[in-house]
UniProtKB/TrEMBL annotation:
<protein>
    <submittedName>
        <fullName>Uncharacterized protein</fullName>
    </submittedName>
</protein>
<keyword id="KW-0472">Membrane</keyword>
<keyword id="KW-0812">Transmembrane</keyword>
<keyword id="KW-1133">Transmembrane helix</keyword>
<dbReference type="InterPro" id="IPR003744">
    <property type="entry name" value="YhhQ"/>
</dbReference>
<feature type="transmembrane region" description="Helical">
    <location>
        <begin position="26"/>
        <end position="52"/>
    </location>
</feature>
<dbReference type="Pfam" id="PF02592">
    <property type="entry name" value="Vut_1"/>
</dbReference>
Amino acid sequence: MLIILTADFTPAIKNSFIRDGTFHQVYGLSLIAFFASMLAYLFTLFINIRIFHFWKKRSQRKYF
């Protein structure tokens, strides 16, 4: 993630095929996508723990 963020703020060389604006359009939102992915992961982990404890309580610790 740090490499992409650094590359986004570093200007392209003069004879590059990809311009700065194009690179930013493609990779500029990577940080937002990274944090959205982490948020979704933590949310589903929380839901998974809640479901596990529900079934643990419901089965009276018979299978867990």
